[in-house]
Every structure is written in structure tokens, then in C-alpha cells.
Design goal:
It contains 6 helices and 7 strands, in the order βαβαβαβαβαββα. It is an alpha/beta fold and 186 residues long. The strands form 2 sheets. The chain has a 5-stranded parallel beta sheet with strand order 2-1-3-4-5, with helices on both faces. The protein has a two-stranded antiparallel sheet with strand order 6-7. The protein is elongated, with a radius of gyration of 25 Å.
Amino acid sequence: MTKSRILFVDDEPHVTAALVRTLRHEPYEIFSATSAQEGLDLLAEHDINVIISDEQMPGMSGSEFLAEVRVRYPETIRMILTGQASLDAAIRAINEGGVYRFFTKPCNAIDLKVTIRQALHQKQLVRQSRKLLREYQKRNAILEDLERSSPGIAQLTTDEDGAILVDDVETGLEELLKEMDREAHP
């Protein structure tokens, strides 16, 4: 299993160094950048799972940076860190950058660790959900094809407990199940 990759972006190197130290015992591969452009360069080279960016940086604000990340790398979880929390900054970060979480400096180390874990877990659940949806759609297409070729083959009768009733062998249920298995696992 590959390690999740975390990217810290802050124009103050001592801040990124402190954040890296905070996560030193966590099972992540950690990257840091001192500008939004450097962060974009790292994103082009590495599959980053989570970005935590400072809001106030020269050249490009954290909100602008995360908005760009949202367009280029929509699967990447985006968080913002700021020393000057304001409602306007929070709204801008949420609307433009689609941020998962808004931290104020100095951020609580435990809160940061837990939030990253939760974000990664949520990302994993979304990935699994999409996989299950694709599998469902594939199986549903198989059922629709079978129903078109043999009308009524997919109709099932159930009892009051939901158990499937098979009235006669000619219903094609057994063949339907075999066909679904063959199609789902070629």
C-alpha cells in the first residue's frame, strides 16, 4: 500500500517545517512548497492526496491556489491555513477553492492529524462508492440485456420474508445468475 501524500504550501519555511514535524510519526509522504507556483509544480510531478495551504502568500493567495488545484486536480483534498481568519477569507476559500477545512494559525496538532485522517478516510469511501456504483451499473446493464433478449427472465417472485420463490426450472433464474457471474468476472 502506498503512503498518502501531503503537501504543505506556505511562504514561511519555518511554518512548513513545523507542520512537517507535527506529522513526522504519521504514515505519510510529506512535501512542502514555499509558493503557490512551487506547489503547482509539485502537483504536476506527484499524486498528492491532501494540500494544506497558507492563505496569505505573495503572488497568489491560498484561495486562488486552491481554486486552481480544484480545477486541475479535483480529487485532491484542499485545506487552508491562515493567520488572519476572517469571514470573507473563509467564504472565499470555500467557494473558490472548495476547501475541506479552514485552520487558523497556530493550528492544533491533534486537530490537524485527525482532520487529515478523516479527509483521507472520506476520500477512500468516495472511491469505494464509485467502484460499487460502476459495478452496479455493469450488472444492471447485463440484466437489461438479458431482459431484452428473454422478456420476463429477470422477474422474480418473493415470499413475505423476501425469499426468492422458484416455481419451475424453466424460469431461467439459474441461467441468469450464471450469465451475470460470467459477465461480471470475465
